[in-house]
Amino acid sequence: QVPDLSWMEYDGSQKDRDYQRIIRQRESLRHRQAEEYRQSRRDLQDLYDMWTHQNKLPIAALKLLLQEEQPDIREMRSQVLRLEQYTQMILAATRLESPETDYVFDWNPLDAPIRSVIRTFSPEFIRKRLRLTYEGTDETALTDVRWLTFVLEQILSNAVKHARSQIEITVKDQVICIQDDGPGIPAQDLERIWSRGVTGQNGRKETAATGLGLYLSKAVMDRLGHEITIETSPGRGTAVRLDLTHGGVQDKD
Question: What are the C-alpha distances in Å from 253 to residues 97, 104, 183, 219, 250?
Answer without folding.
Answer: 11, 20, 35, 11, 8
